[in-house]
Backbone:
């Protein structure tokens, strides 16, 4: 594999497992629901 050959680190290793996504929705209720589900899964960074 190219990463092994180049001894490249995974993004998750470089950022201590944190990375960001932009979330868009048609309304505030959808964003609120998405936040609630991400919190429930323990993957929302606030």
Residues:
């Amino acid at each position: 594999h190219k990463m092994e050959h180049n001894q490249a680190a995974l993004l998750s290793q470089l950022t201590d497992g944190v990375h960001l996504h932009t979330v868009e929705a048609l309304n505030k209720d959808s964003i609120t629901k998405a936040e609630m589900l991400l919190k429930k899964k323990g993957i929302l960074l606030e």
Notes: The mean pLDDT is 87. Residues 28-41 form the longest helix (14 residues). Helices lie at 2-6, 11-14, 28-41.
